[in-house]
């Protein structure tokens, strides 16, 4: 999709629970309004396989936890004008980074004790390797804005999107700048 | 020469996955695999956490079914406290779980799948989405948005928030229901029922449009597993864990907290999702494959137990093969609508009981047992949280048996079935690949929930520049 002169809008899901995307969907009928204002060009609810070029605004959920996330983060940065960390996992690492208190090998070794049969080594041609630590997005790419919350409530997302679509700086009140 | 086709990523599913299809020399499909590519490691990092924190932490496994996780977790806590929770608390959890099912099923049907089902598998990929649906079938899209909203509003009226409320706790729930909020919940139900009634008309349109395909989407015999009420009725919170076969016969019925006697798990190096199997049939064709979720629940129950859903269930049962149950996974979509209807009716019934306003909603106790299993029917199937704790209630070991994982064998078999039918002589196009992906979407998998891994990670170090480019990389 893409009509001239309209904002090109994308959302990306990295290492998170999708709760931030659910909160985005909790915009409910405002989704219809959003679709009237911007072209949705990429996101988990769409079929584009590759992150498109020349995106105006990209909201990113989740921490960077494996190589596929890392490659995606680098690509979306290169191709987006404004990148916003959506939710605590992207902003701080949050729950996704709870694994960082253990060496990654130990995190995986926990699973050696459950299940049956022999334990195969993972095939990294088939699945992406975990990074040694799950990282907040801004440790991997430059980020233009942060929208905290686990998840950020729909009002917060709507306020931010409204500012971005109008090309204004995002102003959130103190009550909209909380974690959790 | 053999060739591999990769679909990367699988889109319009909840989570991260790829599909590979291996072709033989003649260009025919030799194998197809679903690779779940994400892993977050909850089973490792929850060690040492207190049972009081677990509903809040494990809800973050999944933003689509956080209520089911928090309820299964709180119930594992109930078992560890050794308490019977107050009846009003159990009924409130039931309502929240059903409301969560309404929003999750609406998401699957309208937001993720309706574009395939109503616009067509070969529709322009740029418009094959909720946004495309808003342009060409705005009424359907708006109904889907509203139905999902109704489920979310009920969750938030009970629990205070839509996503990740801190409400279900070991021993009960944190907040009782008052008359005002009960009225608000009850007022939402008729509109939900009206939307779902009109959505059954879409089912006829869908069967008309996809008649030729219905039988190719995971239509094979398998076991079905899920909770069944004491009277054999459709159940999402309590009851027995029942396994039935494709003839509809009950193969086994056990208390759900003994799930691990019936279900084993193994893994493969090519997916971060486990492969659960029914132990007694491990050596048979299918390797102990069973299916869970809406299709399984409707197949294994004797009745829905609410009037309108029972009528729809009768219609649904006409889809079954000779003498058996409904075996095609395409019918998961239809089953989801029936379950939404049932959930709306059932919530209404529960609200009618004045006891729902009881202010006694939490049983207080200390750690009385060192092991507890919590369970419920999550939207996608039976969910188990299995905790071992120390005397202080800190987790020593946990196992999460996730609904989506239990469909892993069936999902792999389904994409193989679809791929074999459509890929001939090595020829593929976008529409065919989308059909194969739809084989996964029918199960509405939640892949963030389902990941788990075995194996040792090699040592690896990445040196990143401030702008994120990889400057150097050291790996063993
Ligand atoms: S911030 Fe919270 S809601 Fe968002 S992805 Fe992370 S855990 Fe889920």
From TrEMBL, chain A:
GO cellular component, one term: periplasmic space
Superkingdom as given in the UniProt entry: Bacteria
Keywords: Oxidoreductase, Periplasm
Protein name, per record: Oxidoreductase
Principal location listed in the UniProt entry: periplasm
Signal peptide (from-to): none
Organism of derivation: Geobacter hydrogenophilus
Domain NADH:ubiquinone oxidoreductase-like 20kDa subunit residue range list: 17-161
InterPro entries: Hydrogenase_assoc-protein, NADH_UbQ_OxRdtase-like_20kDa, NiFe_Hase_small_N_sf
One MF annotation (Gene Ontology) recorded for this entry: oxidoreductase activity
Subcellular location: Periplasm
Automatic annotation (TrEMBL), chain B:
An MF annotation (GO) of this entry: nickel cation binding
Binding of Fe cation, residues: 65, 449
Residues annotated as binding Ni(2+): 65, 446
Keywords for the protein's UniProt record, in alphabetical order: Iron, Magnesium, Metal-binding, Nickel, Oxidoreductase
Cofactor(s) required, per the database record: Ni(2+); Fe cation
InterPro entries: Ni-dep_hyd_lsu, Ni-dep_hyd_lsu_Ni_BS, NiFe-Hase_large
Entry annotated with the keyword Metal-binding: yes
Record-linked PANTHER family: COENZYME F420 HYDROGENASE, SUBUNIT ALPHA, F420-NON-REDUCING HYDROGENASE VHU SUBUNIT A
Record-given protein name: NADP oxidoreductase
Organism for this UniProt entry: Geobacter hydrogenophilus
